[in-house]
């Protein structure tokens, strides 16, 4: 089935540019000229992905992103003319799935869209029972939950894929470039700051003390390592 993309930007020229290129790639594209229109189209048209400009009047991209998340889990790629690291981190903290700085090439845009859509596709079925790491942590892969001291905490799709890849290689050091290529796609293999951000997001959800990790260890200059699994469990399917 053709994927449906919502393009939200207050500049008609930008919407036309994006629409023309995505039409050529076989996507169904529809438009919104501001944040309020985007919210309505998310409700009515149920897109597979939203491209969302940050700098819009009345309701900016950050607020629109927050409101989208209240009603939908649709992935969002934020677009901005700013290259500020703070804007990027703020967007990711609000749950954006990626961030592209204008101007961008059609090839980069399509590559990022494909990568995000791959990340949110359902993965292989995992074990029916949660994987118990220790008394404080279990991972329910089918539901994309972590169970921390008895409380279920939902993972974002990218957090889930990152945790799954680390657990599949538990006890081994996984290079940063490998994690980025496997979890985000080869287009991201040099984006080590993105990886650090998501490792921090995971640590905040699963670690008793994120500053002193018990489960996800940093191997400086190399990559990351997940703690060895309990004896008798070999990989996530044990």
Architecture overview:
- The protein is α/β, with parallel strands linked by helices and 238 residues long.
- The chain contains 8 helices and 12 strands.
- The chain has helices at residues 12-24, 35-45, 61-71, 85-93, 106-120, 157-168, 176-183, 192-206; strands at residues 4-8, 28-32, 49-53, 76-80, 98-101, 131-134, 137-140, 145-148, 151-154, 173-175, 216-219, 223-226.
- A 5-stranded parallel beta sheet has the order 2-1-3-4-5, with helices on both faces. Strands 6-7-8-9 form a 4-stranded antiparallel beta sheet, with no helix packed on it. It has a 3-stranded antiparallel beta sheet with strand order 10-12-11.
- Strand 11 and strand 12 form a beta hairpin.
- It is elongated.
- The two termini are 35 Å apart.
What's the gist of this structure?
With 238 residues, the chain is of the alpha/beta class. It contains eight helices and twelve strands. It is elongated, with a radius of gyration of 19 Å.
List the helices and strands and how they pair.
Elements: E1 4-8, H1 12-24, E2 28-32, H2 35-45, E3 49-53, H3 61-71, E4 76-80, H4 85-93, E5 98-101, H5 106-120, E6 131-134, E7 137-140, E8 145-148, E9 151-154, H6 157-168, E10 173-175, H7 176-183, H8 192-206, E11 216-219, E12 223-226
Parallel strand pairs: 1-2, 1-3, 3-4, 4-5
Antiparallel strand pairs: 6-7, 7-8, 8-9, 10-12, 11-12
Helix pairs in contact: 2-3, 6-8
């Amino acid at each position: 089935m053709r994927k449906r993309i919502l393009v939200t930007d207050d500049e008609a020229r930008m919407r036309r540019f994006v629409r023309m290129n995505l039409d050529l790639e076989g996507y169904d594209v529809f438009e919104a000229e501001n944040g309020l229109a985007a919210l309505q189209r998310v409700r009515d048209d149920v897109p597979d992905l939203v491209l969302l400009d940050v700098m819009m009047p009345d309701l900016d991209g950050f607020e629109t992103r927050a409101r989208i998340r209240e009603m939908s889990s649709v992935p969002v790629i934020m677009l901005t003319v700013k290259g500020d690291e703070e804007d990027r981190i703020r967007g990711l903290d609000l749950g954006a799935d990626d961030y592209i700085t204008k101007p961008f090439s059609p090839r980069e845009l399509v590559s990022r869209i494909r990568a995000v859509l791959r990340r949110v596709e359902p993965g292989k079925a995992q074990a029916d029972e949660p994987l118990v790491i220790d008394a404080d942590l279990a991972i329910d892969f089918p539901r994309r939950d972590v169970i921390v001291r008895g409380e279920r905490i939902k993972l974002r799709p990218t957090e889930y894929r990152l945790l799954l890849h680390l657990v599949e290689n538990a006890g081994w050091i996984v290079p940063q470039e490998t994690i980025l290529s496997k979890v985000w796609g080869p287009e991201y293999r040099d984006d080590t700051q993105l990886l650090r951000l998501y490792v921090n997001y995971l640590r905040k959800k699963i670690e008793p003390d994120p500053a002193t990790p018990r489960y996800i260890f940093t191997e400086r200059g190399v990559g990351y390592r997940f703690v060895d699994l309990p004896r008798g469990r070999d990989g996530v399917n044990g």
